[in-house]
Amino acid sequence: MPLFSWTGNPWVDGGLAVIVAKAGKENVEHLTKADLDALVSDGVWLAKANRQLKTFTMVVGVNSPLTNPSLKKNDKGFKQYCEMIQSLAKSAIADTGGEYRCEACGERPATKVLAKYKKEVARDWFPLAGSIGSDAQALPAASRTARICSLCLLSVQFLPLGAIIIGGKIACFQSIYPELTQLIVAEVFKETQDKLNLLGSDEKLSAVGQGKGTKESLTMLLKIFTELQRNRRILELPPHASLNVWLFSNSGQEPDCDVIEIPNEALLFIWDAARTYRREIETILHREPKQISHQLLECIKRKTEYSGFYPFKSSKPASKGLFELYQTKVLGNSLASLRLAEWLSFEIEFRLSGGDKNDKKLLAKLQKENAYWNKDKTVIAKLNGIIAQLVIFQLHSPTWFSGSFPQVQHPILDFLA
Ligand SMILES: [Zn+2]
Known about the structure:
417 residues; mainly alpha; 2 domains; 4 strands; 48% helix; binds zinc ion
């Protein structure tokens, strides 16, 4: 039996994935005691990295010995943190038996390391863990402190190195294919580590997406997927793969946790888009509005139309391929209905461009902005009128039409059939 395995707890697994990546392994089951000893060592590397990461305080608040202002003098907190990390690493493997099981992994005995420092498992060691005297937290209902094992506590200390921020919260990924999560975290960790190496020792590093909306995180996912395809780590997404994103906030007075699912279709969209349309999406994301509800990742989550793919003022619409990919993968529209829409727009353009001054004016408005969003409500009314006419003509005299539309001869009849 392997010494380490996934626990099902998103925070612990997020940290474990960083440990696996730092040890240069591909899977948690390949991790050995020697790997863990080597990468924790005297704890200094982890302490230094976490001290520079802004996500660290988001994961464990400000009461960790590493960040607690009262322990700043003579680096007391830093030293204590290193000591505690080493103790956790030692007991992570050595601990057996014990009265209580860990409530995160259910496998190992609850830690005794924190008690030696007269500390309890509270949110400065485990996200959202409640403690006696602090009922603001969620787990385990403030009746007693949480029982967590040394390995789970240690793993969480690595989590900030593999975390990105989505909409102001820390995001941890979870999938029924843990290898997918492992690859995503490994890419985030690699980027975090590269940035840390370029930073002065007193400088702080923001995580991807920190202080921003969702576009940076989506750009990151696209980048990760491109990278996985480029280095051929994954050629195709596993069938039915979906991604749970656990979003949590552990600092301040309003700790919170939310889980969103990026369903299989949406994930397939991001995967295919990364292969062919990454640059185009990045250009569109660049001009994305600030309201989160209008941002692409949010629209993917909600399965709603994304305005960035439509023309607006001077912005061009998305390419046909990208538009179709979104319509079919995320919104679930069939290719037949898209062909019908394409045929309708072809006929509308054909008629209006050969019409009078008013027709040409209407055509210009249609090409500039999605008719549904135009403040001038007569645009959509006129458009509906033309579509109704087209349908009647099509049903009664299919030969009337321009006939030059390349793929579909009688789309409405085909569609109705
Ligand atoms: Zn545990």
